[in-house]
Amino acid sequence: MSAALEALESAPQGSSLAENAYLLLRDRLIMLDIKPGDPINDGQIAAELGIGRTPVREAIKRLESDHLVVSYPRRGTFATGVDITQLAEVSEIRELLEPLASRKAARMASPAMRSELRAVAGAIRDLEGQDNSSQELMRYDIQVHRLIYKASANAHLEDVLIRYDNLATRIWCYMLERMPSVSGHISEHAELLTAIADGDEDRASELALHHVVSFEETIRKVL
């Protein structure tokens, strides 16, 4: 993985144990490393992470609000199923907010952020011709979206979009084996990131909308 993309994977410095546990579990659930319906054992997770159960339980509560886990009295906590019927609802929200985030990022990004966006765009272009698995490419997709949301300089918009992108990515990963290729979906990001770095608000918004619409169309073709 390139340094530009690798930098996106690290948790913020000074994060609490609960935050670290949340971020780790969240991404495992999104990428289906934890399968839909799998039990979530707080004791086992705490032992794996080398922390107490309390921060793990705090993380699980947050994951419930993200609709990634569900708890049942006397039965325990489980990874939620992947509901393909939610695709239209999730896409409807993303079609409105993703272009907004990209437009704001093009307007608001700092010089340092614009340099980072260009570096990541270059890293995405360098992926062409490499033998990356679909899972690896989807991790890049997550990282790029989160960088755009951060660049929008609107914490509330960032929080909402992360939640819906997580749900969309989970649907995509669930359908991954039916997909002919995801490389084209990932390579689209290079042009989008460049438009944002250039401050081209209209182009960034247009490309973001196209990306979300093509995502839904691709899923529907293999249903």
* Largest sheet report: 2 strands, antiparallel
Query: Strands across the major sheet, in which order?
Result: 1-2
> What's the order of the H and E elements?
HHHHEEHHHHHH
Unreliable runs: 5-10
User: Please, how many helices?
Assistant: 10
Supply the helix-strand structural class.
Answer: mainly alpha
What integer is the average pLDDT? 91
Helix coverage percent:
55-70%
Number of strand elements = 2
- Using only C-alpha atoms, the radius of gyration works out to 18 Å
> So what's the oligomer here?
single chain
Gap between N and C termini, in Å?
A: 31 Å
Shape: globular
Please explain how this structure is put together.
There is one protein chain. The chain is globular and about 55 Å long. Helices cover 68% and strands 4% of the residues. It has ten helices and two strands, in the order ααααββαααααα. A two-stranded antiparallel sheet has the order 1-2. α2 packs across α4.
Task: Note the main attributes of this structure.
two-stranded antiparallel sheet; GntR_C; Tscrpt_reg_HTH_GntR; DNA-binding
List the helices and strands and how they pair.
Layout: H1 3-6, H2 17-30, H3 42-49, H4 53-65, E1 69-72, E2 76-79, H5 87-108, H6 111-126, H7 134-151, H8 155-174, H9 183-197, H10 201-222
Antiparallel strand pairs: 1-2
Helix pairs in contact: 2-4, 3-4, 5-7, 5-8, 5-9, 5-10, 6-7, 6-9, 7-8, 7-9, 9-10
Give the gist of this structure:
It is built from 10 helices and 2 strands, in the order ααααββαααααα.
